[in-house]
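The records we work with from here on pair a chain with its fold. A complete example follows; check for yourself that the lines match position by position.
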Amino acid sequence: MIIQAQIGACGTCINSHIYKGLDDVYFAAHSLAPERGILKKQKIEDMPTADIGIIDGPICYQGKEESIQIAEMVRERSKILLGLGTCAVGSQTIGGFITDDCSRLLPFFCPFLRTRHPKIENYVHFDYKLPVCSANQEGLRKIVEAVINKDTEYLKYFESPEATNVSVITESNLCMGCGTCGMACPTKAIDFPNQRPEINPEVCIKCGACFVQCPRSFFNTTTLTLRRFGQAGDPLLGYYQEAYSARTQNEDIQRLSQDGGIVTDLLCYLLEKNICDAAVVSVSRTGWDTIPEVVTTPEEVLKAAGTKYTVVPNLMGIKEAADQGYTNIAFVGVPCQIQGVAKTDAYPLGDRYYSSKINFIISIFCMENFLFRNLRSIVEGRTEVDMADVSKMGISKGRFWVRSADGNRFRVPVKHIKDYAQESCFYCLDFCGEHSDISVGGVGSPEGYSSVLVRSEKGKKVFSEFKKRIEHELISEEGMKTIHDLASIKKSTNSKTIERRKEKKERVTLFL
C-alpha cells in the first residue's frame, strides 16, 4: 500500500500514472486540493497503514492546521516516508513552475503562490527527500520503485540531500564544464559563455534540478555500473567484455582523425546504418574555440574529426538535438561527460526527456582537459605556433604535439603541460568512461591504432558488425597493462587529492 498525500502542492510534482502496476494507492489531500488524474480524494480519517507514504507540497497557508495534521498522520501510518519537491523539502530552494500553463493557472486558486510557505520537513521526519521542483515523472517512478524494492544504495544520497543550485560546484572549482546542468535546466536559465555555467537569475526558478543532476554533486559508480551492466566491473577500467586494437580503412578518416580514427568511422557507421539519427560532437571554430554541434551525415562527422583538448559542454548538444526532434542520438564525450549522461539516465529527475533520446555512448580516454585559454597558452607559449595556424594536435608517446598549417610538427613533454589542466580534472576518478557503450583511446595500441573497450550488450552488437569494415585484433597483454597503469595512476593520484580537500573541509564530490 502507498499513501499519496497532497497538502499544499501545485500538482505538478507527481502524476497518478507513475503508480500504474506498482501497488494500491490511497490518495489523501487537503480539503482545498483538487482531484489528481485517476486518483480520487479519499477520507483522511480512513487512511490505512502503508509501506510507503509520499508527500508533496508545503504547509498550506489557507489551512495550516489541516496541513500539519495530514502530514503527521501520513508519517505515523507509513513505514517509509518520501518527501517530493522543493515545496516540501529543501531549505535553499523555493520551488517554481515549469510550464506557462502552470504559471497562468496557479495564481487563481492560491493567493499565496509566491509566498515562502513553511516546508513540511519542519514538522515531520522524512526517510528520503527529493528536493527537485516538478521532477521528471520517469525519475519519480524510479525513486518510488527503489523505495518499494528497498534499493538503499540507489537512494542513499536522498537520506540527507543538499538543496541548492550548481553555482556551488563552480565556486568550489569542481565543475568540469560538461553541460549536464544546462541540459537538465527546465527554463534554459543556464548558459556556458566561458566554459563554465552561468545562471540567469531572472529565468532561474530555483528548482534544484541542476544540482541533483550534476555528476560532481554526488556520484555512485557501483550503483550506476550495476544498473547499466548488471554486474560489477574491473576496479580500474569498469565493466567491459572485449578489448581490441583497431584502425579505420578509410583513408580520408585516417588523414583527419586521431590515432586509428575509430570514433569518427564508428559515428559514420551509426548514421549510415540508421542506428542513430544524429550525433553530438565537438566542432572547432576559428582558432580552435570549440562548441558542441549536432551532425546528421558522415560528411558532417568528418568535418568534426580529431580530438580538441579543450572543455566543451557537450551535453548541451543533446538538448539541442532532442529539441530538433532527434530520438536516437549518438554521443561522444570524455569520462566526466559520460558520467553526466549516466547520472541523468539513472536519476532522470530534472532533464525532462533528454536522457531517453540517447541511443549510443562513446567515451574517449582522458587524463585531464584544458580550458581554452590554457590550451592557447600551451600551444602559443610552448610551441610558438599561433592557434589559428594549428591544423591538428594530439598526444602520443608521452608528448603533446601540434601540427601547423605548413606541415611542421612541434612536441612538448606531457609533464610540462599538466599544470595547465583545469583544477577539477584532479578530482576525477574515471580514465576511460566506465559507463559508455564503447570506450576508445590511443594508449595500449601501436601508433596509428586505437584501443577499444566494448562494454554494453548494445556496444558488443554494434561493434561485431562494425569491425567487418576495419582492421582489428585483440589488444596485447602489454597494451592492457599500459591502460591499467594509466587508469591506476589517475585514480590513486586523484583520490589523494580529494582526501586533501576533505582534510581542509573543502567541498568534494560525494562518491557514494
Summary: Residues 198 and 281 are 22 Å apart (CA to CA). The longest helix spans residues 477-503.
